[in-house]
Amino acid sequence: MTASPSPVWHPFTQHALAPEPPVVVRGNGAWLETASGGRILDAISSWWVITHGHCHPRIVAAIAEQAGQLDQVIFAGHTHPAAEALARGLVAMTPEGLDHVFFSDSGSTAVEVALKMAAGYWRHTGEQRTRILALEHGYHGDTIGTMSVGARGVYNAAYEPFLFEVTRLPFPEKGREQATLDALEAACREAPAALLVEPLILGAGGMYIYGPGVLAEMAAICARHGVLFIADEVMTGFGRTGTLFACEQAGVVPDIACYAKGLTGGSLPLAVTLCRSAIFDAHYSTDRARTFFHSSSFTANPIACAAAVANLKIWAEEPVRGRITALGDAQEERLANFRDDRRFANVRRIGTIAALDLVAPDPGYLADVGPRLAAFFRDEGLLIRPLGNTLYVMPPYCTTAEDLDLVYGAIATAADRFGRA
Length: 421
Ligand code: PMP
Prior knowledge:
The chain is 35% helix and 16% strand. The chain is α/β, with parallel strands linked by helices. The chain folds into 2 domains: 57-317, Type I PLP-dependent aspartate aminotransferase-like (Major domain) (Aspartate Aminotransferase, domain 2, 3-Layer(aba) Sandwich), CATH 3.40.640.10; 319-418, Aspartate Aminotransferase, domain 1 (Alpha-Beta Complex).
């Protein structure tokens, strides 16, 4: 008897190229296990979410304990200890000034909430400011609102009439930062509502890295013009760029900050949007029209909050920062072998994130190279999903030197197979 085809519609997948995805049944540290007993090294932290490794025992225990006590409660007009502990913990560990915490369920909704907070702030303080400034190559999520502020590309092209207008600033390429700052200065004179950026590295847009100096200058220009500065730390948060939050490296305190992915150590979906008091106060009123109208059924789910509280404890009590530094150094060592290899360009790294662009024999060859590379790595027992011809490695912090050797060995083999001769 043959099984009928699966009804599952997978996200971000050219189904014709991946008709039979591996069935993953277990996760442990940096490794996944499939139903047929195969092992897969998770070199991209399962879409950048897993920080301390799959099924970290302290997070598993916190989830089990909370699940037996309180699974879910409406968060409108109610609260629970896990949400309170998490909000207090986040305010204590994020830059001073971010005093209020709004809960949602994904990175996209955290950014969507940030955009709504900015819109509400200006509406309620009586100024007509609606335009959002964003960086070229930016990615901020998959809802219509967040797709609008992301760079235009294949993922949002089909929805064009629904997307609202934003002003996009050139990416602050090394040596050409002034062009970005000049464009920002000019755009700020038009009284926009906010600037939204991924600090220090634009992830899904291609792993483009820029410096803390220009980030600090962008924040300063916003402050001078009274434009809200929103940091999308959905990917960068919780250690990815070498510090707990990327904004730390620039000494920048955003007006609004978004965190998701690593917030629960990657174990459960949860997101937060933190803001300064002025933004909360603009909404704090008995006037119903000023209510912040955003909620979803699972807002501040107690089990997810308990997982996040366990994550904060791990940060406080385990040598996470040391692991991150060691992982970054170990990646740097291995990247060195590729810097003079003409089959690769733009070999780069920030914190635990390494990236390099595969130079293909001819541009036409690149058309489907991303999915074909992903299939190649899958056959090698590795979870790596390139962004076009950009290969990147963003592993859990428990990844060992031996694990990294497997990853970089496979990248070298991929160059033999797909790269320029
Ligand atoms: N912002 C950034 C910077 C991201 O990297 C992502 C996810 N890749 C998102 C927002 C959206 O997060 P989610 O996929 O959890 O909705």
